[in-house]
Amino acid sequence: MSETGFIVRVAEAEPRVRSLRDRFHPVARLGVPAHVTVLFPFMAPERIDEETLRTIRAALAGTVGFAFSLSRIGRFPLTAYLAPEPVAPFVALTEGLARAFPEFPPFGGEFETIVPHLTVAHGSAPDAEVAHAELARVIATGGPIHARCDAVELLENSSGVWRRMHVFPLLRAGAAGRDGRSAPGFDDLEEPGALSRVPRQK
Predict the structure, then answer these.
(1) What is the DSSP string of 74-140?
(2) Contact assessment for residue 91 and residue 83, using Cβ atoms and an 8 Å cutoff
(3) Distances (CA, A) of 123 to 26, 118, 131
(4) Residue 74 pairs with which residues in a beta bridge?
(5) Where along the chain do its domains lie?
(6) What is the rounded CA–CA span in Å between residue 198 and residue 49?
(7) What 3-state class would DSSP assign to 158?
(8) How far is residue 202's CA from residue 193's CA, in Å, rounded to a whole number?
(9) Which of 49, 67, 192, 201 has the fewest CB atoms lying closer than 10 Å?
């Protein structure tokens, strides 16, 4: 069954992690770029119509692009990943889309907490352990990966490989919003840690 999902593409990470992803992350060989997942799984691509696109744009309206870095290496049991910092803007993107489409909770509602991450290895604990060690060397040698999020992309895999279906640009800091006021950056949020979490779906 074909699927879609929202991501933030991290082109700046490709030169540093591409070889590891090609070795240890199966979807890398199916066209999925280095990315931070925003919302997956989403609806089948044939269901995405103009009304759906309007809802997506409304959910992301007013969201300002932001800079982030990747230097902290994390593990899930079968996964090695890089954690973006700051994390709050990624959580906000996920929460905004999940509120707009409550029938599509992040990762099917499997997890109680949103943990934004750039997956480098997945599927095998031994592979994840090797990738974790190699990632540590990559970061120690080259330093943090600095990147920007200026858009959210919707990918689909109806052909058997993943391809970009739609791109939703974010505002530039200081750009005027629909009400004519300048859009604040995430650094202007008074309580970035107060963002609520999407509850686990039963």
Answers:
(1) EEETTEEEEEEES-HHHHHHHHHHHHH-TTS-GGGGT-SS----EEEEES-HHHHHHHHHHHHHHHH
(2) no
(3) 8, 14, 12
(4) 81
(5) 4-185
(6) 25
(7) coil
(8) 25
(9) 49
Please enumerate in sequence order all residues whose Cβ is within 8 A of that of 103, keeping only pairs 6 or more positions apart, or say none: none
Rounded CA gap, 10 and 189, in Å? 24
Q: What are phi and psi of 112, to 5 degrees?
A: -80, -25
Give residue 108's Cα distance to chain centre: 15
**For residue 29, how far is the Cα from the chain centroid?**
18
| Residue 148, burial from CB neighbour count under 10 angstroms (0-12, 13-18, 19+) | middle
What span, in angstroms and rounded, lies between the C-alpha atoms of 87 and 93?
A: 10
Query: Collapsing DSSP states into helix, strand and coil, what is residue 186?
Result: helix
CA distance 13 to 139: 11
22-31: pLDDT as tens digits:
999 999 999 9
**Cα gap 15→201, rounded to integer Å:** 37
pTM score: 0.85
Q: Which of 45, 44, 40 is nearest to 27 (CA)?
A: 40
- Domain 4-185 CATH class label: alpha beta
Nearest to 84 by CA among 3, 163, 7, 153: 7
